[in-house]
Amino acid sequence: MDFFDRFAIPHPSPVIYASMVAITLTLVAIVAGVTYTKKWGYLWREWLTTVDHKRIGMMYLISALLMLFRGGADAIMMRAQTALPENTLLDSQHYNEIFTTHGVVMIIFMAMAFIMALMNFVVPLQIGARDVAFPRLNALSFWLYFWGAMLFNISFVIGGSPDAGWTSYFPLAGNEFSQSVGTNYYMIAIQIAGLGTLITGINFIVTILKMRAPGMTLMKMPMFTWSALITNLIIVFAFPVLTVALAMGTIDRLFGGNFFTTTDGGMDMLWANLFWVWGHPEVYILILPAFGIYSEIIPTFARRNLYGYKSMVASIVLISVLSFVVWVHHFFTMGQGAMVNSIFSITTMAIAIPTGIKIFNWLFTLWKGKITITVPMLYSLGFIPIFTIGGVTGVMLGMSAADYQYHNTMFLVAHFHLVIIPGVVFAMLAGLTYWWPKMFGFMLNERIGKLSFWLISIGTCVAFFPMFISGLDGQARRMYTYSEATGFGIWNMISFVGAIMLAAGFVTIVYNIYYSTRYASRDISSDPWDARSLEWATHTPVPDYNFAITPQVNSSEAFWDSKKNGHKLFPGEYKEIHMPNNSGVPFIMSAIFFVLGFALVFSIWILAVIALLGIFACLAHRSFEQDHGYHIPVEEVKETEEKLGGARQ
Amino acid sequence: MKIKGTLILLMFAVMTVLTGCEPLMILNPKGPQAQTQADVILLSIGIMSFIVIAVFAILIYMLVKYRASNQSDDYEPPHIEGNHIVEGIIVGIPVLIVIVLSIVSVRSNYLVEATPEGYEDQDPLVVYAQSSNWKWHFSYPEEGIETVNYLYIPTDRALEFKLYSEGPITSFWVPQLGGQKYAMSDMVTTLHLAADAPGEYMGRNANFSGEGFAENTFSVNAVPPDEFDEWVDEVQDTAKPLTEDKYKELLEPGHLGQLTFSSTHLEFSPPPEGEHGGHNHGSSSEDSEEGNMDMDHENMDESHDPSE
């Protein structure tokens, strides 16, 4: 393809032009707004250069919500296109790009960011730490993710989006069959964001292992921290595989490599193997933090300790191990024979055992409890039935002979959405509502929140249950259209209605944020839910240093103990607090990564070399820098604590 | 919550009933392999419904019984660490269920990977099924004929499909005869099927393969054996042979109607199996290297530009 052809507008459709105008207007509005209110300095000092885990968490949160709507718009377009047989709303190519970007945006840029948001905000507070182990690397992680996401998102207005499915199987994703730059975007944007994730993985493992409050042994960690620890271990094992696979794919596409071609020694199924060796654990990277969140919320609102703490820990550890030995179930139909399929069929179904243990433990946490139904609790309770249906259909898919019939059908689509939506999205919304007061100092409105819950949970059922039926009736996934004679029309129409309900649910969440920001009371205590773990033991808003005095812990519910059993949580006196300095380098370096990525996508080699030098310059700058942070003097700590309502002793 | 639980339960029940009664394609099998798969699916739906109902029942019970509004204000929930008997049950029952399902899964997988039961004593009909963008080419090497986008198959005879692809990975799927299997350009996979009843069945590529994927379908005509022999004779008498040039023309990306030829492409464009297999790089002889090279050039020359 000629050099300039690569930049062409992908589809001469009104949707794309409208998006272009919208993007430009939004950018202009942001720049004008910040300039008008003279907030550039504030923005730079307080946010772009921040190394505070709480602020990084909030930035992840905003990005994740934006990406939720970006991926959601794709979803609505897909369901609208297939709502009627022979529909011509989208053409085939456009539809292919949309389902590809829907998958990538939702998994990599929405769900991952959402778990990073909550993990960043909550984990250091929950273990009684002042920040993560490497605050500056944490900022770098966020900005790499952010700029990776930006790079991916400009694909749909400049040059065309990837169109080979979020799995990007070769040779379809190779140059021969996918000639636009779309798949270049895929390879490089995910690579940049993935680097950030890998760094986070290392950062949080060190944080959790080395920075726990005195007394917090591993078996006294709150469940969310446990799930975060295991999640990050999976990240550190799985993401390097993705890094390598994407690098190989990039070499194939940009430099004429032959790793995944079907000629000259390449193997197309090698990509599938590498992709799923990362991709299956990735599913558990998403779901384990969700399990952690539910394990915090259900005890809080059942007013009881988590049932079977030890078996909960054992089951996440077991799930993390099993998550690495099931990837072949993604291609039972590749022809590897009954023996290999049987082994992977058994390992796959085995995951149902630890998952089942967790479900029953949550149910038994309700036993003899005193259940109050708040919005976070609603999501946690709604999760159980819907996720169970998604989970048991997963066991059905795990039976390899039957999978020959389910594979690549709408049945599969129904299964994984009914796992991921209640598993991840519900958990994130539950966690968002639950920790919102700690983050922002006011509660989200309960009535609007309940409305959102009902719209989202009923919408999920209406959108995805019909797909079981159309799948069993032979509808393959990723078909942009079908004939009326197939009889799929009615099921797809119901799905579309469900998708609209889901969209309405998400809109009400935004409305809730707007409404509560304006009208909610700021006069809430630091512990509005009467919760159990350490993050609620500090003030709201949380001061920069989190805890004026390092807490002393003696159970997995330290704060509850201090409230009910009179355990002294903060022994000792104020001391000087050592804090890290802000830095602009993570932001600048990641922005250069964006430039490098853009240059590589379009094979602009000179720019790529310049950007690469810029990255090395940033690395060199850091290695010669002397920065030992700063100290907050005792007087200032005292002053802050008094201002925030007196020290909790 | 109660209403919602019942609602979901109701929906799942309706779904189960629907899948049981309506002739959904996968649950309306017309061959022994599809029959095995349908049996596995129905059995697993049954066992899984049991689990779903158990979870729903416990959830509803807990929510009704232990709701704060049903309790006195001074009730303080107890601290309960766990219970070995309860935990033994919640581990033990899933383990038993997974063991049962594993046995079913392994047995059925060996069944569908072998010559269909009851057809072991006869030679299977071998058909090479090759996908190209976005068509299906079916070669009958023994009969010396080839069709595009439709299959004629005899009933009550084992069928052995040899699957491969010219281009992206595709998946050969005739739901009513049995599950799918991938067709790839660097290896040949084997799929065993058989049809019990005459009829016309839907077949398609189930694996996303680019722009023309949705229309990448074919029809399968299952006819009694003597009728099949008549059809073969008729094709041999009336259809034209498939020339190399015509074959290359057919490989161009796009859609076609149904075509019939009285010779196959297997001689001049061999499938990637045995010596020609993409996975046997070391052992390839000179000739087959050339064969592979030829195929490569075809790829290059025609460059499969979707925008063409």
TrEMBL record, chain A:
Q: How does it sit in the membrane?
A: Multi-pass membrane protein
Q: What Enzyme Commission number(s) appear in the record?
A: 1.10.3.-
* InterPro entries recorded: Cyt_c_oxase-like_su1_dom (IPR023616), Cyt_c_oxase-like_su1_sf (IPR036927), Cyt_C_Oxase_1 (IPR000883), Cyt_c_Oxase_su1_BS (IPR023615), QoxB (IPR014233)
Pathway it works in? Energy metabolism; oxidative phosphorylation
Subcellular location(s) of the protein: Cell membrane
- The Cytochrome oxidase subunit I profile domain covers 38-554
| TM ranges | 15-37, 58-78, 98-125, 137-158, 185-209, 229-251, 271-291, 312-332, 338-357, 378-402, 414-436, 448-469, 489-514, 587-616
Keywords, in A-Z order: Cell membrane, Copper, Electron transport, Heme, Hydrogen ion transport, Ion transport, Iron, Membrane, Metal-binding, Oxidoreductase, Respiratory chain, Transmembrane, Transmembrane helix, Transport
Q: Which reaction does it catalyse?
A: 2 a quinol + O2 = 2 a quinone + 2 H2O
* EC class of the enzyme, as a word: oxidoreductase
Q: Which cofactor does it need?
A: Cu cation; ferriheme a
Q: Which Pfam families does the entry link to?
A: COX1 (PF00115)
Comment on bound cofactor: Binds a copper B center.
Q: What does this protein do?
A: Catalyzes quinol oxidation with the concomitant reduction of oxygen to water.
Q: Which family does it belong to?
A: Belongs to the heme-copper respiratory oxidase family.
Q: What is this protein called?
A: Quinol oxidase subunit 1
Name the species this protein comes from. Answer: Sediminibacillus dalangtanensis
UniProtKB/TrEMBL annotation, chain B:
Keyword entries, A-Z? Cell membrane, Electron transport, Membrane, Oxidoreductase, Respiratory chain, Signal, Transmembrane, Transmembrane helix, Transport
E.C. no: 1.10.3.-
Reactions it catalyzes: 2 a quinol + O2 = 2 a quinone + 2 H2O
Q: Which residues form the Cytochrome oxidase subunit II transmembrane region profile domain?
A: 18-116
Per the record, where are the segments of Basic and acidic residues compositional bias? 294-308
Q: Which residues form a coiled coil?
A: none
List locations, semicolon-separated: Cell membrane
Q: Which Gene3D superfamilies match?
A: 1.10.287.90, Cupredoxins - blue copper proteins (2.60.40.420)
Topology with regard to the membrane?
Answer: Multi-pass membrane protein
Keyword Heme among UniProt keywords: no
Q: Where does the protein principally reside?
A: membrane
Q: Does the keyword Coiled coil apply?
A: no
The UniProt annotation puts the region (Disordered) at 263-308
The UniProt record lists the Cytochrome oxidase subunit II copper A binding domain at 122-234
Give TM segment ranges: 7-28, 40-64, 85-106
Q: Which PROSITE patterns match?
A: COX2_CUA, COX2_TM, PROKAR_LIPOPROTEIN
Which SUPFAM superfamilies is this protein grouped with? Cupredoxins, Cytochrome c oxidase subunit II-like, transmembrane region
General function of this protein: Catalyzes quinol oxidation with the concomitant reduction of oxygen to water. Subunit II transfers the electrons from a quinol to the binuclear center of the catalytic subunit I.
Q: Which family does it belong to?
A: Belongs to the cytochrome c oxidase subunit 2 family.
Q: Tell me the protein's name.
A: Quinol oxidase subunit 2
| Species in which this protein is naturally found | Sediminibacillus dalangtanensis
